[in-house]
Amino acid sequence: MILRLRLGTPDEEVQALRDLCESQGLRTVLSSEPSRPIFAVVDKPPASLAAELARDSCVEEVVTPKGEWRLVHRAFRDRPSVVRAGDVRVGGGEVVVIAGPCSVEGPEIMLEVAKVVAASGAQILRGGAFKPRTSPYSFQGFGVEGLRQLKDAGEAVGLPVVSEIMDAAHLPAFLDHDIDCLQVGARNMQNFTLLKAIAGAGKATLLKRGLAATVDEWLYSAEYLAAYGCSQVILCERGIRTFEVATRNTLDLTILPLLKEWTHLPVVVDPSHAAGIARIIPPLSRASVAAGADGVAVEVHPRPAEARSDGPQALLPGELTALVSDARIQAAVTGRAFHPSPAANRSAAAQPAPVGG
Q1: Mean pLDDT, residues 96-111 taken together
Q2: Which of 176, 195, 236, 266, CA to CA, is 20 to 30 A from 256?
């Protein structure tokens, strides 16, 4: 259960309620919400205690979540969470675009793509250094060297970076290279050992929905991250496996308004992996933003036919620029802002000051 206390409740009253719960062997977690005291009772309280808590004059509302996720539940915060990846805010009424190649393919091509992403106005650079591939003979990425190339390219253009982590043993390399956002891929959504290991790293984490995961299962994975210390979680819908074979996966946009009701976490959509077809990614991106997504994550490559992985779903540079322009317009239409690109901010700051006359 989640207890939402009245505005202005003194700290000692909040602690007294938590002590009451904990004296009966129940774990409690205090929300970081600044506007009012909120805390979750992680374990199920006996009916008598639940009734006593509900009657307390400090308690404004008692919320019983539909599932056993507590810390990611919408009621655990007054406002939607904002996650910071470097200098970029994800959530909080702003729309972002994450873009980059499927795989880091070398320093020259990575820098070339990074410049394309920065010039388009997108805010975060993506690139895979460790690649989970269905075939053992497919390109698996450059590993730690790929992380270095990605980070170097991001720093060169002034963009934070996100890359997928597949094994807890790789975490030191991600931290050593200061990867701004750790991506947990669809295949690892329920790798709870990995989730526990990276939760305390102090990094933003992009959690992709599993190939056949229900929303409840997805939120339980997010709860693992939150319960083990990660307060910076971004959900990513990337399509689920259905009987349909016209596209790579089936993009499930029906969950976006539901997620806004059920969780305070920001949500982005990856139409590239959902569709697998480059030409339909722009309309799917528009639909995602219109349905309430806090951003989209897409793949781009200057020469998709030469890409070492997922070339058919990679946008061309001009297509990315058009997609970002569309996202900017749709953000305004839906009453939100388009997050300024840190690359553009850095470029503006580097311009010489006008000479006074």
Answers
A1: 96
A2: 195
